[in-house]
Amino acid sequence: MRRAYLGWIGIGILVVGAIVLVLRHDDGSVGTLANHEFGNLVAGVALLIVIGGSMVASRRFRLGEAAKQAVVWLGAMLILVTLYSYRHEFSQMAYRVFGDLVPGAPIAMTTGDGEPQVSLRRDASGHFSVRGTINGASTRFLIDTGASVLTLTPATATAAGIDTGALAYTVPVSTANGRIFVAPARIDRLDIGPLAFADLRAFVAPAGALSGNLLGVNVLDRLESYSVRGDQMILTGYRP
Questions:
Q1: What is the pLDDT of residues 22-34, one digit of tens each?
Q2: Dihedral through CA 70, CA 29, CA 31, CA 72, nearest 10?
Q3: What is the predicted pLDDT for the residue at 12?
Q4: Distances from the Cα of 204 to the Cα of 32, 186, 190, angstroms
Q5: How large is the C-alpha radius of gyration of the chain?
């Protein structure tokens, strides 16, 4: 077996080991081994295969070459350990970059108890918005704690299968642009990433009254919790 193959095998073992550690982090162990013990075992096996295998494959053992390989692989192990140790910081950085590139994109996560979560980034205007679907129709919402009810533009309502021509615009509400009359409606399903809400009360605004959809308090009240941490909003769990 060529020594180059041994190097790729060692890399493969380290990568697989790192993935297992990330997936099993919350459990604290892999099988009967603690996470740090498992990491040490994986690193040791990788080193043994690369260095020991090279020694066996080589006709003559060269101490200098073995030492060089050992330094390279110890460096690779150190990099992987560092990446694992700072995985939360790196994930937050990734969320921030993704949120800036795709405003309103919900980042799906889970709590330690397995509850679904959605992470959102504040947009350039200083507000939180989120992309989701209404009855299967994709759209975007501005999260507005000043709006008591989920409120849709006529275009979004039509895309969601609501007959806007049959609605009665009889409910007065106050907006930043003044007082308007909206029409009551029902939404079969609202999806925001892994969060799903059924049978929601909604309003449909008249044409030209709103520039976008408003995700109101009646949706937020269905959540187990929601919080703002700096430029990040976390939506946690939901009650059907």
A1: 555 555 555 655 6
A2: -10
A3: 64
A4: 57, 10, 15
A5: 27
| Sign of the alpha-carbon torsion through 234, 236, 239, 240 | positive
pLDDT of the residue at 185: 96
Q: Which two tokens stand for residue 219?
A: 């949706």
Distance CA(169)–CA(151), nearest Å, equals 13
Instruction: Give the confidence band of 1 by pLDDT, cuts at 50, 70, 90.
Output: very low
Q: Identify the DSSP state of 86.
A: T
Query: One-letter amino acid identity for 132?
Result: G
3-state class (DSSP) for residue 61: coil
Which residues touch 79 (CB under 8 Å, ≥6 apart)? Answer: none
- For the chain, domains (ranges, CATH) are 3-85 (no CATH), 103-236 (2.40.70.10)
Task: Map tokens 């110890």 to a residue.
Answer: 74
